[in-house]
Amino acid sequence: MSRLFIFLQYLLPHHALSRLTGKFAEGRFSKNLLISLFISRYQVDLSDAENEDPEAFESFNAFFTRALKPTARP
């Protein structure tokens, strides 16, 4: 089964798939879904973030570069 999986990965158009995934992650339509799934899956604590509202981020990528409160790090 793992050999088949590896073989199928060689058949994928990696560059196109990467660009498509990037566009999806940058999109405003999908960002709320992606952010909420990520927060739920990895139990992200937004209490250290300047903006604690997950829906306020411009994109999924912006969620990963969020500003922290000045008191968040010593």
C-alpha end-to-end distance: 49 Å
Output the structural class.
mainly alpha
Helix content: 55-70%
Computed over alpha carbons, the radius of gyration is 17 Å
Unreliable spans are: none
Strand content: under 5%
Describe the largest sheet. Answer: none
From the spread of the alpha carbons, the general shape counts as elongated
* Secondary-structure element string: HHHH
Mean pLDDT: 87
Q: How many runs of DSSP E, i.e. beta strands?
A: 0
Number of helices: 4
Written account of the structure:
The chain is an all-alpha fold. It has a domain at 31-74. Helices cover 58% and strands 0% of the residues.
Write the layout of secondary structure elements.
Elements: H1 2-11, H2 14-26, H3 28-42, H4 60-64
Give me a quick take on this structure.
This protein is mainly alpha-helical. The chain has 4 helices and no strands.
Which short descriptors sum up this protein?
74 residues; mainly alpha; 4 helices; 0% strand; elongated
